[in-house]
């Protein structure tokens, strides 16, 4: 087994403009060799290789990618689809933007292989509407690929046909949820669907559909080129293969993207990697996996930054978006802002999310404006209980988890507002 | 048959049935708002969430089909807590205006609130309010009362086949509306109100006319076309206030068209001729039954007569006429009539993709089965016509000089120019059988007493026979 | 009804038709394309889109109003959308919003009387590593501070 002893970046060395063109991809990144290889493999072999790699979804849920592909029926009366989730809407996340901006062909090739493995002949990249520039750059790359026979009919002489279309979202967080995304792709309101049926049974336009995140798909050419075991060995904790691009933002000296071997560092080490807390201040809190992840206090950061270790301490890795908060930022203000976001983004279909998120926002706003009452904190916790696990999609949990964690872990700050010692 | 366990009871079910229906069959109520058996399942309101063994989260019963051996709890603490919390969420922005709300007394939200909610309200923030735009003549919207169940939207797109009622904006700002308050286009708009589980969409026709709990309900059949949709007449003190669809999966499922729904109005209409009446010049003169019958006989005396019988009458009425007419009028020709251009069931066809049929009367099929011939035009030389109908059959235009006597339900606004009107009963005032387009025999049930001096057909025929000798008919 | 949308709109849309198995799927691209032409989406434009796709105008409205990028009301020539979500907030987005509000004398959501600037608060733009960030029409501006904001906005005609 090949053990990667050192940090072995797959992506970030390519995050600059000259890496974007097809010519660079072909010459310097062994471009479209993996798809060529994949066309010589059986679909099952490809899926097994991905299973072996321990590649897990990079969008937030961390679901094993190979298993997801394996759910797609071999035979289907309706056309199958591959959809790339490039909605990147979880606050704090900004990795897919660079992946699309600088390594679009890695994504295209990843999609080509994934599509071949599941038998889809049309792929869509659902990109958030605000990324207009990235959508244009993707389109340029797609046009290049079509021109050179890496997309379209009979790709690379394989007999396999694959079309790829960029579909722009239009400003809705919920379209990052895969069934909301599919509705949006179909020209509807981006409201999540009742599951089952899952997308693998009935997804885009009713056909069996795989929805994968950008970073997930860009890992695929590596896995095919270098093997599932190689990829798996990049990971330093069980069940997680590869490297992870971590989005570090907030109060650090060097915010940005950092690529580490999965599970190779603690939260504290990653903050240090990003230059430490801004201005040498003391750390107050870390939101480890996008704004929907329950918050960690400064005492809780010696935890390995990966899916299971974070789950064990009651939070999540999500989309690997780490937001750092230093000592003098107000936690009440912060959670009010986060909750306002979820209330704004709730699609409004299901009762607890539609009503509960707005209610929490209003209570927090009232507390912030010095009109809090003693019973408000219990009320907030009660509302989070009544939302969490009871909504149609995960947005309810995304809104409830942070509120509960902020109220529990930073209670004195809320109480100071309620006592009238502070107000915003 | 497959079995599952609900609240400790073993319950049989047909594969594919959801837990709400399986439980209901066993007499166990699982409360819900967004679920409707005739619409797609969206699992949005979350009220029907139940506990299922081996599943960590509560599951919505509407979207969960029962499976063999499944163990379901519908009254556990977790389930009750969720019901309480859903009720709280639904009510925080719902106005406490039941006393002035038309839905009060038959409101799902009100009922479930009593059963599953908490009387104590913790919400102290400002309530969400909307300015309502109009929706046309059928439906009155009050968005403040809406609980976003989307049944109306689904009814429009899935049943009425029109995407006119929509949700705009999103989250807690979501509003149900038509584009810029345009009138609803479907002629099934009344169903929007039926499916609404709150007082958000009410019928303009019914609003503020009667409290729901005063209404007496009679199951009957619509007479609006040859489908014979099942419905209920709701009346109080002999006044009909509304008609609502009654579920019959083989005929109309859960629905009723607006024409059928509002058809009842003619029964109560001011200008209905409810007394025996003679025509004097331009106006009608009420008289008594004996005089009216005498006058009718005088009109027919010595004239060549034809008889038109409306296919809005019942089989029982038709059969009585089959005995009565030859006895009284010899071989005068008899035709059935109802909808111009629809002389037989051959001409009858669907009028839309939903329920309506081309025959705008309910018993065309029944009359044909009884051997009546369809009316196309009067045979040559006819000088007088006896028109017998319920209230819907469309009276043909007769040549000037043809004298007409009407028996049944007529309105002065129709200005039939009849010599005599013998007032009969409408579909709401009698019992009887009608046969729909597919041969299904269904029962009309009397829900109110005949108005004024209107009489049932057998009684009128009896009076006619007992009133002296039969009319001399030219042969 | 007279057509408002240009031939270019129809050409662009017709090119997309073969990319989707249904016509309704053209709705989001159509709304984007139409907004690019008109700057916002008046009722008549949505009506025309509905007609082109073959759906009820209410369906166009329900979809358009779901997404924040579609302007259902007119906006200024320069549409400033400042991200005030977590990462940007931590990096001073509030001060930037306040500064622009004062600079133009408008509140968030407002448009200057000369219809030149519309200011809005935006949810996370996915530019958290370069916070605070904003969009000016279709373009991103990142690592903002009061000085760069002034330079940028003062340079606009």
What's the arrangement of strands in the largest beta sheet of chain A?
A: 6-5-9-7-8
Per DSSP E runs of 2 or more residues, the count of β-strands of chain B stands at: 22
Q: Approximately how much beta-strand content do the residues of chain A carry?
A: 5-15%
- The unreliable regions of chain B are 470-475
Structural class of chain B: alpha/beta
What order do the strands of the largest sheet of chain B run in, or round the barrel if closed?
A: 14-13-20-19-18-15-16-17
The CATH topology of the largest domain in chain B is given as Rossmann fold
Please state the overall shape of chain B, judged from the principal axes of the Cα atoms: elongated
CATH architecture annotation name of the largest domain in chain B: 3-Layer(aba) Sandwich
Inertia-based shape of chain A: globular
Biggest interface pair, residues each? A-C, 57 and 40 residues
Description:
The complex is a heterotrimer of chains A (424), B (475) and C (157). Chain A is of the alpha/beta class and 424 residues long. Helix content of chain A is 42%, strand content 12%. The longest helix of chain A has 18 residues, at 351-368. With 475 residues, chain B is α/β, with parallel strands linked by helices. In chain B, 21% of the residues lie in helices and 20% in strands. Chain B is built from eleven helices and 22 strands. Chain C has two domains: 7-66, Orthogonal Bundle (Arc Repressor Mutant, subunit A); 78-154, Glutaredoxin (3-Layer(aba) Sandwich). Chain C is built from seven helices and four strands. In chain C, helix 2 (27-38) runs antiparallel to helix 3 and helix 3 packs across helix 4 (57-64). Chain C is elongated. The model of chain C has no long low-confidence stretch (mean pLDDT 96). Chains A and C meet through strand 3, strand 5, strand 9 and helix 13 of A and helix 2 and helix 5 of C.
């Amino acid at each position: 087994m090949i053990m990667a002893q050192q940090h072995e970046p797959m992506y970030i060395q390519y995050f600059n403009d000259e890496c974007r063109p097809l010519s660079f991809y072909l010459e310097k990144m062994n471009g479209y060799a993996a798809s060529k290889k994949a066309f010589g493999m059986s679909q099952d072999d490809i899926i097994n290789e991905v299973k072996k790699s321990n590649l897990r979804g990079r969008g937030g849920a961390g679901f094993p990618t190979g298993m997801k592909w394996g759910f797609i029926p071999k035979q289907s009366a309706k056309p199958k689809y591959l959809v790339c989730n490039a909605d990147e809407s979880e606050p704090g996340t900004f990795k897919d933007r660079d992946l699309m901006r600088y390594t679009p062909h890695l994504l295209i090739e990843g999609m080509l292989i994934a599509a071949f493995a599941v038998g889809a002949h049309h792929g869509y990249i659902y990109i958030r509407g605000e990324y207009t520039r990235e959508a244009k750059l993707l389109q340029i790359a797609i046009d290049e690929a079509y021109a050179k026979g890496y997309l379209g009919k009979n790709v690379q002489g394989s007999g396999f046909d694959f079309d790829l279309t960029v579909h722009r979202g239009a400003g809705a967080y919920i379209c990052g949820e895969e069934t909301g995304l599919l509705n949006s792709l179909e020209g509807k309101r981006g409201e999540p669907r009742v599951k089952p049926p899952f997308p693998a049974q009935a997804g885009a336009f009713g056909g069996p559909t795989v929805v994968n995140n950008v970073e997930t798909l860009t890992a695929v050419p590596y896995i095919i080129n270098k093997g599932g075991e190689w990829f798996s060995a990049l990971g330093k904790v069980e069940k997680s293969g590869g490297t992870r691009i971590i989005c570090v933002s907030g109060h650090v000296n060097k915010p940005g993207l950092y690529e580490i071997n999965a599970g190779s560092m603690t939260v504290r080490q990653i903050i240090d990697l990003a230059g430490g807390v801004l201005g040498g201040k003391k750390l107050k809190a870390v939101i480890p996996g996008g704004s929907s992840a329950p918050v960690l206090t400064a005492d809780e950061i010696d935890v390995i930054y990966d899916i299971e270790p974070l789950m064990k301490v009651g939070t999540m890795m999500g989309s690997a978006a780490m937001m750092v908060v230093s000592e003098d930022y107000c936690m009440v203000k912060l959670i009010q802002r986060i909750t306002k976001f979820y209330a704004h983004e709730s699609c409004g279909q299901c009762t607890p999310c539609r009503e509960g998120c707005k209610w929490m926002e209003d209570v927090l706003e009232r507390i912030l404006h010095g009109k809090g009452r003693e019973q408000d904190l219990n009320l907030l916790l009660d509302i989070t209980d009544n939302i969490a696990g009871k909504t149609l999609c995960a947005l309810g949990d995304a809104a409830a988890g942070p509120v509960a964690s902020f109220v529990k872990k930073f209670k004195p700050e809320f109480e100071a507002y309620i006592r009238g010692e502070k107000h915003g | 048959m497959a079995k599952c366990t609900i609240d400790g009871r073993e319950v049989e079910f047909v594969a594919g049935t959801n837990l709400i229906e399986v439980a209901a069959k066993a007499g166990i109520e699982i409360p819900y708002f967004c679920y409707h058996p005739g619409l797609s399942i969206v699992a949005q309101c979350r009220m029907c969430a139940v506990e299922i063994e081996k599943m960590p989260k509560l599951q919505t019963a509407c979207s969960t089909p029962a499976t063999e051996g499944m163990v379901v709890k519908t009254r556990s603490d977790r389930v009750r807590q969720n019901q309480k919390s859903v009720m709280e969420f639904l009510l925080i922005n719902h106005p406490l205006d039941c006393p002035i709300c038309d839905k009060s007394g038959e409101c799902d939200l009100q009922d479930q609130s009593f059963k599953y909610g908490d009387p104590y309200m913790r919400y102290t923030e400002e309530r969400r309010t909307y300015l309502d735009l109009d929706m046309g003549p059928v439906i009155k919207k009050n968005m403040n009362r809406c609980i976003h169940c989307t049944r109306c939207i689904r009814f429009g797109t899935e049943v009425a086949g029109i995407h006119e009622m929509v949700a705009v904006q999103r989250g807690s700002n979501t509003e149900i509306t038509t584009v810029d308050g345009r009138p609803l286009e479907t002629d099934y708009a009344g169903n929007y109100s039926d499916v609404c589980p709150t007082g958000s969409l009410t019928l303009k026709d019914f609003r503020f006319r009667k409290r729901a709990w005063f209404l007496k309900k009679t199951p009957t059949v619509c007479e609006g076309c040859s489908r014979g949709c099942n419905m209920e007449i709701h009346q109080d003190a002999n006044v009909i206030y509304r008609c609502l669809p009654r579920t019959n999966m083989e005929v109309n499922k859960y629905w009723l068209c607006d024409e059928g729904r509002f058809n009842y109005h003619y029964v109560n209409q001011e200008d209905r001729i409810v007394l025996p009446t003679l025509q004097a010049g331009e106006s009608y003169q009420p008289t008594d039954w004996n005089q009216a019958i005498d006058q009718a006989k005088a009109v027919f005396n010595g004239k060549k007569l034809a008889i038109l019988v409306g296919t809005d009458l019942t089989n029982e009425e038709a059969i009585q006429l089959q005995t009565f007419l030859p006895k009284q009028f010899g071989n005068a020709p008899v035709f059935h009539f109802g909808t111009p251009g629809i002389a037989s069931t051959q001409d009858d066809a669907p009028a839309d993709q939903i329920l309506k049929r081309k025959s705008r009367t309910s018993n065309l099929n029944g009359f044909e089965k009884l051997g009546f011939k369809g009316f196309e035009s009067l045979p040559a030389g006819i000088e007088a016509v006896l028109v017998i109908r319920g209230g819907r059959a469309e009276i043909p235009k007769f040549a000037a000089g043809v004298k007409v006597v009407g028996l049944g339900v007529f309105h002065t606004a129709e200005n039939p120019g009849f010599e005599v009107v013998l007032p009969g009963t409408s579909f709401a005032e009698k019992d009887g059988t009608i046969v729909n387009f597919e041969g299904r025999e269904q029962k009309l049930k009397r829900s109110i007493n005949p108005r004024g001096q209107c009489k049932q057909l057998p009684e009128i025929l009896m009076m006619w026979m007992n009133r002296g000798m039969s009319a001399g008919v030219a042969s | 009804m007279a057509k408002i949308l240009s031939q270019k709109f129809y050409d662009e849309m017709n090119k997309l038709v073969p990319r989707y198995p249904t016509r309704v799927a053209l709705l989001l691209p159509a709304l984007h394309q139409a907004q690019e032409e008109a700057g916002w989406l008046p009722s008549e434009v949505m009506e025309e889109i509905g007609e082109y796709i073959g759906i009820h105008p209410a369906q166009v409205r329900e979809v358009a109003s779901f997404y924040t990028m579609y302007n259902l009301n007119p906006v200024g020539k320069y549409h400033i959308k400042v991200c005030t979500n977590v990462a940007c907030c931590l990096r001073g987005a509030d001060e930037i919003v306040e500064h622009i509000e004062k600079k133009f004398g408008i509140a968030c959501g407002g448009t200057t009387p000369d219809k030149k600037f519309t200011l809005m608060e935006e949810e996370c733009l996915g530019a958290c590593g370069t916070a605070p960030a904003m969009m000016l029409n279709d373009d991103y501006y990142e690592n903002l501070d009061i000085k760069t904001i002034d330079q940028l906005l003062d340079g606009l005609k």
